[in-house]
Amino acid sequence: MKVAVIGVGHLGKHHARIYHQMPDVELVAVVDNDEKNAQTIARRHKTKAYSDYKEILGLVDAVSIASPTQTHFEISRDFLKEKVHVLVEKPMTRTLEQAEELVRLAKENEVKLQVGHVERFNPAVMEIASRNLQPVFIEALRLSPFRFRSGDIGVVLDLMIHDIDIIRSLVRSEVEKVDAVGVNLLGKNEDIANARVTFKCGCVANVTASRASLKSVRQVRIFSPDTYVSLDYGTMKGVLIKKPPEVDFESLNLQQSSASSFFGRTFEEIFFGKIMQIEKLSMKAHEPLYKELENFISSIVNDVTPMVPGEDGLEAMRVAQMILQDIGKNLERAKDRFRDTKF
């Protein structure tokens, strides 16, 4: 299969590296408007370099698009029209309407459209996805220093969209409403945001993202009627705590037990040591991006739906748009409130 990478900066260069390593895949080109960078990556992987993606239309079976977000729509559209399979990095487009158009084009031309939500391929996320939980509350935290990338979008489309996609895949229900706030510190786009997302099934997710923090944090906590999960995406470690089905907690009624009845023992010893089932999640380490590109190629070869199809990217964009609209409304309310305040 002949593939190319459009945009070989921070992330795209790793797409090129992995394609070069893959069996039965030929990396025929890398494209970047920085000609020097394109030549460097091309020499490293023994392929050709181009500065204009239109030069390779008709030469490839599939592409990875890792260029700036503002270019995603035009480039993806042109390849989909040529019946080329497309993996486009997140967020898939700048606007919801553009995302809808890409999904339509992929269907019309009968090609695969995958969105680069790489966290879906994180070993920790894959492990939890296999547990078939029924979440009632999710708390996600994603903090990072600003890396001087993705300045054309705010933190909702830059970082929070990872958690939006993961949470949607776990809850599997439509979003009913959002309540969100955001603050811009470094420029015109929001750099810190928090959203409370309510799903029609009743699940509530509290999601916080920042790209103006001192250190990186990527964590999620998931509560279901009989299970609690805590995951750290960065370390790929987690713990799962589950109620044993044979224990009747209402009859046990620890809430009304007297301290004297457990004299000499702590709550932790009783509840987490004796009653609850605690499992440290063991996850087989792998490179998430390799798994993502492997899934993309496999979906083409076997003509199956990729793990993160265009429709999933579109729905993540839809939720992100709801959050951004609510942030905008709340910022206007705050401005009006402060304008009317007399000191």
Features:
10 helices, 343 residues, Dihydrodipicolinate Reductase, domain 2, 38% helix, 8-stranded mixed sheet, 24% strand
Descriptive notes:
This protein is α/β, with parallel strands linked by helices. The protein folds into two domains: 2-120 and 289-307, NAD(P)-binding Rossmann-like Domain (Rossmann fold, 3-Layer(aba) Sandwich); 121-286, Dihydrodipicolinate Reductase, domain 2, CATH 3.30.360.10. Helices cover 38% and strands 24% of the residues. The protein is built from ten helices and 14 strands. It has helices at 12-21, 35-44, 69-81, 96-109, 123-129, 155-171, 249-252, 267-275, 288-301, 310-340; strands spanning 2-6, 26-31, 48-50, 62-65, 85-89, 113-116, 137-143, 175-183, 192-199, 204-210, 217-223, 227-232, 237-242, 277-281. The chain has an eight-stranded mixed β-sheet, with helices on both faces. Strands 3-2-1-4-5-6 form a six-stranded parallel β-sheet, with helices on both faces. Helix 3 (69-81) packs parallel to helix 4. The radius of gyration is 23 Å and the shape is globular.
Biggest β-sheet: strands ordered side by side in the sheet: 8-9-10-7-11-12-13-14
Q: How would you classify the helix and strand content by structural class? A: alpha/beta
CATH class of the largest domain: Alpha Beta
- What integer value in Å does the Rg equal? 23 Å
Shape: globular
| Average pLDDT taken over every residue | 92
Total number of helical segments? 10
Q: Give the termini separation.
A: 68 Å
CATH topology of the largest domain: Dihydrodipicolinate Reductase, domain 2
Number of spatially distinct domains: 2
Number of strands: 14
CATH H-tier superfamily of the largest domain: Dihydrodipicolinate Reductase, domain 2
Pick out the low-confidence regions: none
Annotated CATH architecture of the largest domain: 2-Layer Sandwich
**Percent of residues in beta strands?**
15-25%
Estimate the helix proportion, in percent: 25-40%
What is the H-and-E element order? EHEHEEHEHEHEHEEEEEEHHEHH
